[in-house]
Amino acid sequence: MSALIEFTEKGLYCRQGDFYIDPWLPVDKAVITHAHSDHARWGNKYYLCQTLTKPILQARLGEGIYESVAYNVPVFINGVRISFHPSGHVIGAAQVRIAYNDDVWVVSGDYKTADDGISGKFEAVPCRVFITESTFGLPIYRWKPQVEIYDTMRNWVQQNIDNNINSVLLAYSLGKAQRVMNALAPLGKKFYVHGAVWNMHQALLEAGVPLPPAEKITFETSKEILKGSIIIAPPGAEGTPWMRKLDPYATGVCSGWMQVRGNVRRRNPGAGFVLSDHADWDGLLEAVKATGAEKVYVTHGFQAAFSRYLNEIGIDSGEVKTAFGNEEELELKAEETI
Amino acid sequence: MMDEIPFNTNHILKSESGLRSFALLVQKVGTTTKTNEKLKALVEYFSKAQEKDKVWVIAIFSGRRPRRIASGSLLATWCCEKTLLPFWLFTESYHTVGDLGETIALLLPPKKEKTNETADLHYYLEQIISLEKVHEDLKKEFIVDCWAKMDTAERFVFNKLLTGSFRIGVSQKIIINALAKVVSADASQIAHRISGNWDPVTTSFDELLVHESLSADVSRPYPFYLSYALSGEPQSLGAPDDWQVEWKWDGIRGQIIKRNDELFVWSRGEELMTEKFPEYQILKEALRNGTVLDGEIIPLTNGEVLPFSLLQTRIGRKNISRKNLEDVPVGFIAYDLLEYGGEDFRNVPLFERRKQLEAIVQSVNHPSLQISLVIDFND
């Protein structure tokens, strides 16, 4: 059986349908798993994505040809059946199922198996070949239940409020920022947000996603008004002059990398919250097994280790190098600007 | 200045066992670089913690920890057995984490809900001491059982206690300042009290820091004030007249203590080295009780200083032969007088200390005790 998806220098390519999935170089037809910048790049002539991803792509990439379709609704390109299935990663994120002549491949994009309440519940999609991410593909990464992490975050913010300190949460503008708002909404405090977070917030509100109200911090926002508030900013804002106005504040970093002490020490935030939009070790294994795939390709992350482990437990696996960074790593390098 | 203590990130606060409070303390002081926050966390800990645990924490932070009872590779092997992970994956994880104790803590399956609370810190330390000489299987049984009952943060500190490698970013100075605050004493007194010979198993917190106990350690040295290079210009020191200038000698900084008719020799590494230098026994007779000299342990022959490398041939040896003593005779160049007549002399002005020191060296009148010369200088 010839490969339904090939690994090319522009990205994952379906020859039969002549389209790419999350290509990293400009192509004619791009099928997009989700709107993070390492998966949805600028410059493609045509984008196909899940319904909720479309407004985010438009906000991020500007004018273009975007077509969207709901989860589980098939689209056919030259006889290839394409469908999107919830990946639980961020709002609108999907796994892409590709079927042709009884062969089924699934590209996971990024995913998390635990339900965060806003990104859709991860759906196991049976397939012959599964292409999985492995951002946190080592057994040291095991997440606590979301309720516990949210509880800890609320306690931390409350402690800051009691001490008259502003709480600055560094969270990626798509995904983490919305989760943080949901986590902290019960405190009844107003959210003040960085422009990047605000743009995303607006795009999602316009798309009909219910989110707590937030106010953009602008040049006019006074220091007074920020007192004791909750501020959400992308990691890229850390250490920039933009932060000066927020003083006095404590910084909380929300990232799966906070699992390891050394990373917390290097960042030296007031608090590190182990909050990730990726599956942990157990989640990855569970997802792979649930597909029943006879072949698993492991991409971005700890692909060598995870792939070797899969082979050892009897699941035929190979590692594939892709140009997906992962956005949590980018978070650590802190780059985002909109 | 921000005043808050970095929040424990992985765990929700609840009433805590001794081990748990210690784990939280380590988490707090280990994830901040702000001295004030470290100090605050320590003060909070020492104000609330269980008595025996506090003593152990002082011991651990000042380098008095139990002997290692299991090697890192043994612990790794047991961890792989418990988790059913292949060893290569353990190694892979270790490379990412960079710390063996933490790697194991993260790899072990989560503690089962409803498991009993963990015990106090001193319980684990005493167990570790009692297991020093038993068969490996018994050690394993204890350790694996402990792991199962602990959460990640507790396992981390427990593993650190087991492997005897506890570097968690707190200087002795911060500990001393925290203790000084908690017991309302002078930092220099605290520093003095926690130096020297004391056993965390038999010493209580009050004995160590508060009481004028009869059994107080007579050998206890004062903290060493080591010389260091000036980072600014010499002018930054102020008027030359305010200073006394002496050579810095290349030996081992030491203190000679005469108390209770006994003589003790300490090196700067807080190591008791009395037996290594029989030459100093003459001082047992010649010095009065309640005298502490600060100076340089150095090879001397007829007042001439010998190279430092020769001294190393002396201290490296377990037994010192007559020939060693003849080849490399060791003397002491006194810089300062820290205690006199049983009184802490450190707050007495330098010129008075010097006068008294000169009188002592003169009255001893023995070639193995020299005084560091004061150098004349012009600005």
Structure summary:
The complex is a heterodimer of chains A (338) and B (379). Chain A is of the alpha/beta class.
Please explain how this structure is put together.
The complex is a heterodimer of chains A (338) and B (379). Chain A contains eight helices and 19 strands. Chain A is of the alpha/beta class and 338 residues long. In chain A, the strands form three sheets. Chain A has a seven-stranded mixed sheet with strand order 7-8-9-10-11-18-19, covered by helices on one side. A six-stranded mixed sheet of chain A has the order 1-2-3-4-5-6, covered by helices on one side. Chain A has a six-stranded parallel sheet with strand order 14-13-15-12-16-17. Chain B has 379 residues and is an alpha+beta fold. Chain B has 16 helices and eight strands. In chain B, strands 1, 2, 3, 4, 5, 6, 7 and 8 form an eight-stranded mixed sheet that branches. In chain B, strand 1 and strand 2 form a beta hairpin. At the A-B interface, helix 2, strand 16, helix 5, strand 17 and helix 7 of A face helix 5 and helix 6 of B.
Key descriptive features of the protein:
heterodimer, A: 338 residues, alpha/beta, six-stranded mixed beta sheet, 8 helices, globular, disordered C terminus, B: 379 residues, alpha+beta, eight-stranded mixed beta sheet, 16 helices, 43% helix, disordered N terminus
Please work out how many helical segments of chain A DSSP would assign.
8
Low-confidence stretches of chain A: 328-338
The largest interface is: A-B, 38 and 33 residues
Strand content of chain B: 5-15%
Q: What share of the residues of chain A does DSSP label as strand, in percent?
A: 15-25%
**Structural class of the helices, strands and pairings of chain A?**
alpha/beta
Shape descriptor of chain A reads: globular
Mean pLDDT score of chain B: 86
* Unreliable residue runs of chain B: 1-14
Give the CA-CA distance, first to last residue of chain B. Answer: 41 Å
Characterize the largest beta sheet of chain A: strand count, sense, and whether it forms a barrel: 7 strands, mixed
Shape summary of chain B: elongated
* String of helices and strands of chain B: HHHHHHHHHHHHEEEHEEHHEEHE
N- to C-terminal distance of chain A: 44 Å
Structural class of chain B: alpha+beta
Q: Classify the helix fraction of chain A into a percent range.
A: 10-25%
Instruction: Please describe the biggest sheet of chain B, giving its number of strands, its sense, and whether it closes into a barrel.
Output: 8 strands, mixed
